[in-house]
Amino acid sequence: MTDTGYSIGEMCKEFQVTPRTLRFYEAKELLFPVRIGQKRLFTKRDRARLKLILRGKRFGFSLEEIRQLLNLYDLGDQQVTQMARTYELGLERLKAMEDQRDELNSAINDLKEQLVWGEDFLASKGVKLAAE
Amino acid sequence: MTDTGYSIGEMCKEFQVTPRTLRFYEAKELLFPVRIGQKRLFTKRDRARLKLILRGKRFGFSLEEIRQLLNLYDLGDQQVTQMARTYELGLERLKAMEDQRDELNSAINDLKEQLVWGEDFLASKGVKLAAE
DNA sequence: CTTGAAGTTGACGTGCACGTCATGTAATTA
DNA sequence: TAATTACATGACGTGCACGTCAACTTCAAG
Question: For position B15, which CATH number holds?
Answer without folding.
Answer: 1.10.1660.10
